[in-house]
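Figure 2 data, in text form.
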Amino acid sequence: MSEDSPSIGTAAQIAAVFVAGGTGATLRVLLSGRIEQALVERLPYAGVLVVNLVGCLLIGFASAAITTTHWRNIVLGGLLGGFTTYSAFALFTVDLVGQQRWGVLGAQLGAHLVGGVLCVWAGFWAARAFGLGVAGG
């Protein structure tokens, strides 16, 4: 297993990832909510955009700066994973470009972008099929 690969750690490490993930998710909601309130008329979903871009900047920095699996799991997987999973998507995209794995890159981009949108539509359809009220879609 490479140093970049996630690994199952001790109960203490799993707890640390759990707390870091909750912290990241809380920061995401607070930051995106404030930005949305300020910019909703000029740029809808600006909060999501800012969170994703900040997350990408932070995961780029952290992935280069943090070398131990223990702290990478906590910071990259927990804190930044809770903050935005888009940053992880962007990081592995850059990794695949660096490895020149163009076929895998194309498949991953297509599956994430097209597959993600199709899954959201399918989720809306399924909720409606079960007679549940759905916001959006």
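Caption note: The helical segments are 11-39, 46-65, 69-83, 86-98, 102-129.
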